[in-house]
Amino acid sequence: MGRPFTDDDSQIKVHEKHEVREPRKFKVVLLNDDYTTMDFVVEILVHVFNKTETEATLVMLAVHNEGKGVCGIYTAEVAETKVDTVHRLARQAGFPLKCSMEGE
Fold it and tell me: Where are the chain's structural domains?
């Protein structure tokens, strides 16, 4: 018969390092086309991206003048949802508006 089991016998010191990182971020970008109206782009920016009218107008002008404009920066899941929402709303309205996500 051995000696009785005690708590001291079962203690093992383990040092774990947990590295906490911010989730990867993505820019959601609207791309210019020759058919989608500027008003519709502003509407999308206000309703989907929670921009003010002024902010939405500035992003819309970037899309119009530079070919693309950044709508916001989000985690992957949120960015994917925003892109899908823009595409769905654009199709429902009969516009070919394109939206994409780019790594930050």
Answer: 24-103
